[in-house]
Amino acid sequence: MPTTYDLIASTTLTTTATTISFTSIPQTYTDLKLICSTRSNFGSALSRYRLYINSTSGAAEYGYAAGVSNGSTVGVELASTGDSFYYAMETYGSSATANRFDAIEFYIGDYTNTVGRKTLTSLNATFNYAYSGAGGWANTSAITNLYVVCGNSASFIANSSFYLYGIKKN
Amino acid sequence: MPVTYEPIATSSPNGTTLVTFSSIPATYTDLRLVATVLGASQGNDVFMYFNGDTVGTYDQNFLTNNGTSAYPGNYQNTQYYLSAPFNYTSTNQQMLITTDIMAYASARHKTMLTQVSMPPYYSGASAYFQTAVAIWKSTAAITSLTVRCGVNFVTGTTLTLYGIKAA
């Protein structure tokens, strides 16, 4: 039985970093899964972050929609007019309780196709928030690069980790 | 390293509304269905059912964001497990559906967790999102899984059923 779930690349930070890059992603899998555990140095309890595909300076080709619960109310995040990145997630900032790192999982289907627009789902959890989101990239290029960028002009801190897996259907 | 995530079967349908994975082995802990779907036209739904059971034994709760507003909902005693409405799909847009089916071979009612994503249907539009939890109120082990589309699947559609082992 072949291995269907391969680790393509991983990074665990030893110092701060604003952008985590996965480049030259092999085109030999069916789907991609990116799992991150992060915390930022933004001076608040929460900090936003973003996912870019192929370039961090792309056009407003991303759409997303998410359900958000903060434990007492349900809210909405969405890009109703298109955005230049995929956003549906929070991580902890520097004033959050020590030792807390968020968890997020992105699943990107059929990332090598050059016909359909790309779709992805995400699940994000912090102590304060739960996000369940979905989105798409309105571009027919195959996905070769992924960039995770810390928002709020802040950086991810040491011990934040990022794992990119390739999933084969056969 | 043991293999814990195995493809059981893959289908790439074209010109049919039904895909059935049958004779599913009972040797895994959970199942995961990953589908990237293209349909012949808009405005139809994608459904799922197990063991040919369409007599009304599915319950589900869901949260949807259609790009304009978010809303909760639930269905009870339905004939199918509704995966997703297919509203925006056209020839170059794939819908992504992931469904985890827990303890599928057990003698308990089965629990499913589904996420659905549809891309912006034109550059600048919002995406569609749905998260759903559901149960199939049957104690039978799942041996077949059928995915039905309201219109024909077309080329570019791929459905893969994975088996997941706990160890």
How would you describe this structure to a colleague?
- The complex is a heterodimer of chains A (170) and B (167).
- Chain A is mainly β.
- Chain A has strands spanning 5-12, 19-22, 31-37, 46-53, 62-69, 74-78, 90-92, 103-109, 118-125, 130-137, 146-150, 161-167.
- An eight-stranded antiparallel beta sheet of chain A has the order 1-12-3-8-9-10-5-6, with no helix packed on it. In chain A, strands 2-11-4-7 form a four-stranded antiparallel beta sheet, with no helix packed on it.
- In chain A, strand 9 (118-125) and strand 10 form a beta hairpin.
- Chain A is globular.
- With 167 residues, chain B is an all-beta fold.
- Chain B is globular and about 40 Å long.
- Chains A and B meet through strand 5, strand 6, strand 9 and strand 10 of A and strand 1, strand 8, strand 9, strand 10 and strand 12 of B.
Question: How are the secondary structure elements laid out?
Answer:
The complex is a heterodimer of chains A (170) and B (167).
Chain A: E1 5-12, E2 19-22, E3 31-37, E4 46-53, E5 62-69, E6 74-78, E7 90-92, E8 103-109, E9 118-125, E10 130-137, E11 146-150, E12 161-167
Antiparallel strand pairs in A: 1-12, 2-11, 3-8, 3-12, 4-7, 4-11, 5-6, 5-10, 8-9, 9-10
Chain B: E1 5-11, E2 16-21, E3 30-37, E4 45-50, E5 58-65, E6 70-78, E7 81-85, E8 95-102, E9 110-118, E10 128-136, E11 145-153, E12 158-164
Antiparallel strand pairs in B: 1-12, 2-11, 3-8, 3-12, 4-7, 4-11, 5-6, 5-10, 8-9, 9-10
